[in-house]
Amino acid sequence: MAKDLKKKIMESIENLVTLDIMTAVGHVAGPAGGSEEGRNLPDLDYKKNPKMILTKINLLQGDIKTVYHEAFVTGEYQELRAFHATREKEGYKIVLQNIAVLERLLKMITEHSEG
Fold first, then answer.
1. How far apart (Å, rounded) are the C-alpha atoms in residues 71 and 28?
2. Alpha helix positions (H), 1-115
3. Which of 81, 59, 63 is CA-nearest to residue 72?
4. pLDDT of 36 over the 70 cut
5. How many structural domains compose the chain?
6. C-alpha to C-alpha distances, 14 to 8, 17, 53, 65, nearest whole angstrom
7. CB of 56 within 8 A of CB of 88?
8. Which of helix, strand or coil describes residue 7?
9. Given the DSSP bridges, would you call strands 51-58 and 43-44 parallel, antiparallel or unpaired?
């Protein structure tokens, strides 16, 4: 069991390469419902051209790429740029916290399996 958990933690760490942060305004598609595992949750209806800001942060190389729809720069959604910037900072902090938790779990499992 400890070996399986260790493997899952290592896979989680490997998947923490890119942080994607999106702020979008548009129509919602899909079923309404809660957030229970296995349930389909609503998402943007990409067929109806939502307007969005998308930031991709490569955590290994430090590359940051942000793409804005013009409505966030010169149009009606300008005030959401600051919201998106805040979400970028929060997202980065969350990733760092998650890495620290995974590191502590991995250490505990390694110590437990050795001792």
1. 19
2. 2-14, 80-114
3. 81
4. no
5. 1
6. 10, 7, 26, 21
7. no
8. helix
9. unpaired
